[in-house]
Structures are given as structure tokens and as C-alpha cells.
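Worked problem 6 (solution included).
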Amino acid sequence: MKVALLCVGSELTVGAISETNSNILSSKLEKYGHEIETIIVVPDDLAVISAQIQYICEYYDFVFISGGLGNTFDDITREAVSNFTKLPLEKNLDLPEKMAYTIAGSEVFLNKVGLAPGLLVHFNEKKIILLPGVPAEFDYLLDLILDKLFLEIKNNLYIYYYHLLLKFERSVESDLPKDLLEDFEISMTILGLDSEVLLILKTDSSKKAAYWDRRLKKIFKDTLYYSGNSRSNFETEAYTVLKKRNQTISIAESCTGGLVSSRFAALPGVSSVYLGSIVTYSNDSKKKLCGFFGDSVSPEAALSLANASRKIFGSDWAIGVVCYAGPEGEIVGQAYISIVGDASYSFEKLFKGDRAFIQKRVASFALANFLGVITKK
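Solution. The predicted structure is:
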């Protein structure tokens, strides 16, 4: 079964917002043994949308379309699908204006999160699925529709994820066996992320899935911090380790302004290990809260922040983060991380990019090194 996703919205093509529904769809398709083969993003233009629907329907069995189902003049996804399929629009629902119309013969899925319903259109042995572009609504309706579509047609697709701590793509690629890369039954993907590399293995063979899972875990045993049939991240695994050991953490940040803390705070149940954080952005705040009067971006500053956080919250572990996020600063992108617990650990790295990019990468670097420290204990 071949799957494609068409994302409709001028707000996507002009960069006003990021497209995230592909992430939702791909993660949900995995449990049914399917994956997205093509993702296309188009503006709110009837001719462009219609042309892409025609193209996708020629090559794909399941066509998911997100966006363009609202009530404004540029919400024209229903019209585009109606024009292509030659199935008329019919006013069937007690909803405002354009949302009341469905495509003749389509199955309707009512939206309990928003207003616009989901539609499933059967056309020439193809399935065209229309969903709202709002991620929460897309997510809710997708669960209803996928259960109906794929309940009886699961494929034997085995997917494994391997998260490698503080590695680079080229070094990981050089460690992969040649027979793995040349195996036509295996699909391997190497993704360089912030302070880690993600390996994704896919195969239809249960025997080869089990064989290569064992080998990859052995090859990367020194840097593998998580492996499984779903993805993970630094903060989730750090939380798991701390909870198992009945230990706690606190955080003190400067340049990242709470980014490290927010990633912990997003985890359900994390209050059992995460005690709190302080943001000492100005030099004056570092003096008042941490008693530090030296160079505000230095290994000593990071250590002072970590020690102050640990003292204030009484945590077993603490992380201190300082950097030059830019565009001003002596060395833009220079970051220092300090981790205190059973001992003190210091890390530093120079990052390149704009301010937001540097802050994001420094936050990941801090979490990656913290996970590295506690997993070696």
C-alpha cells in the first residue's frame, strides 16, 4: 500500500508556520506497518491543488490531504477533490457555511476537537482522506480513520530506532557493516540530529530484523542510549534513569533562557525527579542568585550556576548552562556546560548558526551530556 500526504496552505509555503502533520501521520502509520512515501506542500491555489491531487492519485493508493477545510474563501480543498473526482459537493451537515458540505458518497468523521469534519472518499480503488490542517484536529480524526482503513490490512514492516549519543553521521556510517548496507531487503537511514545520530532500520523480514537488531546493538553499545520500535530523546531517557534510581535534578540556565528546563517540564510525571530551575540571564542575576562575579560565559560560570541550583533545590544532580547565543559576544556560539552530582563534570563546544539555532543546540548538548554522565554510573 503506497501512501502520500498533500499539505495545503499558503501559510506553509510562505514559511509563516511549520508543517507538522507529516510527523503525526508517519508516527501513527508505523503501527499499521505503513509509511509515507511522498510529502507535498502546496499553497491555497485551486489549480495547483487539483494538479497535485491528480498526480498523487496516479501513483498512490492512499492520499491524505491536510488543510483547506475551513470557512474562508481560500479553503478550497473540498472543491479541488470534487473537481478531480467529478463527485459533487452536497450540503449534508449542520455546520457553518462551507463546512456543511461533503463530497458525494464520502464517509464523514465528525470532529470533536474542532469543527471541520474528516472525509474519506473512495475513488477508482483509491482512498482520498481529507483532514483539517490544525494539528490537534488532524491528530484526533486520523485515529478514527486509520482504524477503519488499516484494521484488516497490516503489512509486516519491522522498524527499529537506534539513538546514538554525541556521534556524527560519517563516523556512524563507517561503523556500519558493508553487508548491511548492500542488503536489498534492508532500508537504513542515518540522521544527524542535535548532539546525536538516529539510525532507522526497516525491513519486511522478521528474521533479518532480529539479526540486525542484535548486531547493531553490539556495534554501537558504547554510544547507544536508546533502541526500540519508537523514537525517544535525551530528556525522556534521563527521566527514566533518574526515576529508577530515585534521584532528582535541577537546572540553572543563562543563554538558553529555560529551554533545557522546558524539555524536562514537558514530560508527564516528571515532577518526581525534576525539582525546578533558575534562569540567571543577566550578570547581575548571576551575582545575586549564584554569588558569581567572574566571566559570565566560562566553565567557572557554568559550575557556579550548577552548584547554586543544586543548593537551592537540594537536588541530587544539577546542570549549569552558559553561552554566547549571539549575535553579540566575544565568541558567538561558545557554550559551557557543568554537571554536578557525585562529582563535577565540564563540557564545552562551539556552535554555529543564528541565535535561535544556537540556543536549541546548546540545550540539546546539555541534555546529551547529562544523559551520558548518569548512564555511565
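Discussion: The longest helix spans residues 355-375.
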